[in-house]
Amino acid sequence: MALITLGINHQTAPVEIREKVTFAPDQMDQALQQATSLKEVNEAIIVSTCNRTELYCEVGEQYDNALAHWLSKFHRLDDDQLMPYLYQYRNHEATHHLFRVASGLDSMVLGEPQILGQLKTAFDTARANNTVKTVLGRLFQHGFTVAKKVRTDTAIGANPVSVAFAAVSLSKQIFGDLSSLHALMIGAGETIELAARHLRGQHIGGLTIANRTLERAQGLADELGATAITIGEIPDELAKADIVVSSTASQLPILGKGATESALKKRKHRPIFMVDLAVPRDIEAQVGELDDVFLYTVDDLKEVIDENRRSREEAANEAMDIIQTEVKHFDHWIKTHQSADEIRLLRQNAELFKVECLNKARQMLENKDDPAKVIETLSSNLTNKLMHGATLEMRKALKEDDQDMIQILHSLFKNENRH
Predict the structure, then answer these.
(1) Residue 241: C-alpha distances to residues 62, 182, 199, 228, 278 (Å)
(2) Which residues are catalytic?
(3) What single-letter DSSP state applies at residue 184?
(4) Structure pTM?
(5) For residue 283, what is the domain's CATH number?
């Protein structure tokens, strides 16, 4: 068996590529079933966020990179469109990567806690689809424990920073005082909630929450003293918005150039600051071409985020020490697990030999053969079967003068009671 991690993230691929390989929630069940139906793929978990799409799999030793081809095919891409952006890790490196991801060390915002919740959601979805068994189950549970230890034992989570926080920080840089401004938040998930709370903390003048489900929007609006509307009401609301932050799971853009142009006319071209935190993007790229619109995507926030990253680097170094130790612990478990599997397989094979020889012996007894002859035949057949593979390996070792293998084979059949 082997562990495989295959994926792309904000470091290897721009948003234009990442948005093409995201998995919508309603695609996840089908994707997990397809992935585990591939030859040699025994377990699978799929993580799909705005900054990464990753497959974590336990595969057989004959695995031949089928996952990369499947990922391209699932999203109707040619291999050469995706392959340059993919990374793949195996065994030790795959474990190391997951522990870094879970701890927030591989995120655009160093140490951000949201990814841990996203990993847990991916894990629960895979469990619901029965695509998680012993190995990935142990790997992810260990990863969750590592993330908790990193957050407890280091300052990686001090002064919370997130993509949502970076978006609000940028709006402060552009507008200064936010108390006279109105913000339109599109979506009602965790990212939008964080951004809205940060805006409230900066004394934003007014807040509107737009969501496909009005009830969900109203729930968040009630908590924040905001107004709730549906997605369909956005064009009318847009003219009031000085700040727009969007983060939904929509597979198609929600806000286009035409609606934005109409809003700007009503605003008499007062500028609008827009942050699109969704992948795929919620706001058409052409909106950014309009005068009086300042449109930023998650990739554009990198500079703001880099300033915060420097303050967390010391904590990240401490976190890496924890991760290195925990990777060794998991590697030890994997070796123990694999050795148990190999011993079980060895015993199963020996049991098959025994049953086959016993069946022949019983047949001889039913045929009234001499019991002494039956016992002799039984012992000879069993010895020959058990020795066949070892004999072939010994011949090979002698031919190649492999002294280590020769000694191992001798030790297998050493009689400890011999004087």
Answers:
(1) 56, 5, 13, 14, 19
(2) 50
(3) E
(4) 0.66
(5) 3.40.50.720
